[in-house]
Amino acid sequence: MGVEIPFDLKLSDGDLKYSEQYKSVRRDGSNGCYPAACLPIVGGKLSLSVELVGSMSDGNSFSFGVAQSMRKAWGDGFGKEKTSVGMFQAANETESVGLWDTLNSSDRAHKGLSHVLKKGDTVGLVVSDGLAVFSINKREVGRFPAPGVTVAGCTLNTNGGVRIIESSSSGSGAVGGGGGGGGDTSSVMFSTSMSATELRFKGQQVKRPGTSGCYPLAAVLVPPGSATFSFAVKMLSSTDNGNAFSFGVAQKIRKTYGDGFGKERTSVGIFQSCSASGSISFCDNLNSRPDVSLSNKIVRGDVIALVISGSTATFTINGRKVGSAPVSGINFAGCTLHTDGEIEIVAAPQEAKASPAKSEPEPSKKAVRALSRDMSSRLKDSAPAPRIKGHDPAIRRRGAEAPSAAPGLPLGTNIDPVEWANEEEPAIIISYSTAAANGHGLTYTWALTHELQKVGLTVFHGRMVFSGDSWQEQWYGLMQLTAEMATGIALVLLSEEYFKSEACVNELRAICKQFDSNRIIPVMLGGCTMRGDFLGHCEFLGKPFERKKIAGFFRGKIDGNCLPPPDVGVFQDKWATHVEQLITRVKQIKG
C-alpha cells in the first residue's frame, strides 16, 4: 500500500473549502472559475477515487483527471486543459459525462459516455506505467496514454464537492473489468476509448457487427518503457464472412478507415485478407520489410499471440512462431476485425515453438546467376520515370510502406510510395481497396500511379496524403476538383474486396455522382460482377431495396467500361498490354 495523499493546497484553488484533513473539498456557490482541487502524482503512480458529495445540478462544469500541469483556477478543466486527460461533465446533471484527451490529441479528442454523474457516484483513476485508467462506480470507462503527468484531481461545479475514498501512490487500485465484473488493472484489456466505436465490447470479448466501419480497431495500450509485454486473442468466429483480419502492434494506428496491422504505417503484424480463402502474411511496415507469406490460415478456435521482449516482437499462431521484427516506440497492440468477426483476450503462450516456415529448395548457383543477369538486363533497359512536379519519388512519407512485389508486375516496376505535393488539381483520382488481389491492391495502385506519371499525368490516391493529414478530407476534396475539370478522370480499381468495403463503396458513389460515365475508367484487379444483387451484403447502404437502387446506379454509370472486360481476366494478367490500353483511353478522354 502506498502513502495516502490528501489534496495539496500548493496545487489547488485557495477559495475552495477543505475539511477532514484535506480529504474533502467543496465549492460554495459559483465563486471562481474551474476551481481545481489537486494532489501530486508521486513516482508516476497513483490510485485515486472520490465520491461526489455535493450537488451536480446547480450549474457549471465538473471535471476529473490527470495532467502534466494544471491551473488552480480560470483554466479549462481536466480533459480540456492543455496536456490533460479526464472526464468532463458540462453545466449540470442533465448532460452525460464525456472523456476528453488534450494530452495526446491537439484537437481535444472526445468520447461521450451514456452515464450522467450524480451525487453519490464514485469516480476513479489509476496511473501506472504511463497509462491512466478511468472508472465510474468501479467500472472502467476508458484508458489513455499518460506520459509525464504530475497532477491529478478535479475542478468543481457550482455547490459541488468530493470526498477522497482512496488516494495511494501505489498505482494499484482496482478498476472494473470493462464489460462487467472486476479485474486487475495490470491485466491486458481493450481500451474502448482508443478503439472503433462500431465495435461491441463485452468484458474481454469484442465483436464487429456485420460490415460496420472499415478496418475497425480493437486497441490495447502498451505501457511505455515496459521491458516485456504479451497479448493474445482467441478467434471465436468464422473467418470466411469477408473483409480482412489483422493482429499486431503499432506506434500509431487509425481507429477506422486504416489499413490494418502490418499494412498501416509504423505497424507490424499478421494480416489475413478478406476470407479464409485469401492470403495470410506476416507484414512489417514499421521496418519497410517485404511481406512473408504464411501457410496456415487463421480459423475459428485459433490463438494468435505476440510477445514484446526488449526490442523484439515475436508473433505466434497456436504457439508456433510465424514471425518477428525489431520494434521501438510501440504504443498500441490489438486487432482489426473482419465481417462478423469476434475475438476474446486469453492468456499468452509462455514460449514460442519453432517457426513453421515453408521449406523451399535452395536455388542452384547457376539459377541465381541467370536470374541476376536477367534482372540487370531488364533494369538497364528500363527508362527512368521523368520528374513530374509534385511527384518526386525521392519524397517518401514518414514511415511510408514499401509494398511487396505482386504477381504480374514486370521486374523493375516502380512501386515506391510518394507524397502528394502538388498545388493543382490532379488529372486522375484513384479509388482502390488495399485488400484486393490477395492483399496486393496497394502495390498495383502505386505501380499504376508511376505508369501514368511517366506520360506526364498528375495522379492522386488516398495513400499519398501527408502524415497527420486527413485522407478523407484530402481525397474527397481533390476528387471534387478533378470532377470539375472537363477532362478529369476517375480510375476505379474494382475487385470483390472493393465491393465489400464501406469506404470504397462510398467513394464509388461519390465518383458516380460527380463524373460523367465516359470519364470513369473501371480497372479489374479481381474477379467481381455488377450483375444481380451484387450489393446485397452491404447493410451499411440501408434497406435491401435501397441497395438494389444503388447497384442499378453503379451499373448504369460504369458497367461496360471495364478494362479488361470482366469475362476476359484481370488487369495484372497482361500488365504491359493493359497499361498501354489504359494510357490510350486516358489520352482519348483528354483529347
Explained architecture:
- With 591 residues, the protein is α+β, with helices and mostly antiparallel strands.
- It has 7 helices and 32 strands.
- The chain has helices at residues 365-381, 436-439, 441-454, 471-484, 502-514, 544-558, 575-590; strands spanning 17-19, 24-26, 36-40, 46-52, 62-67, 84-89, 98-101, 109-112, 122-128, 131-136, 139-145, 151-155, 161-168, 175-176, 182-183, 200-202, 205-207, 217-221, 228-235, 245-250, 267-272, 280-284, 289-293, 303-309, 312-317, 320-326, 332-336, 342-346, 428-431, 459-460, 489-494, 520-524.
- Strands 1-2-13-4-9-10-11 form a 7-stranded antiparallel beta sheet, with no helix packed on it. The chain has a 7-stranded antiparallel beta sheet with strand order 16-17-28-19-24-25-26, with no helix packed on it.
- Helix 4 (471-484) packs parallel to helix 5 (502-514).
- The protein is elongated and about 85 Å long.
Describe the structure concisely.
This protein is 16% helix and 28% strand. It has 591 residues and is α+β, with helices and mostly antiparallel strands.
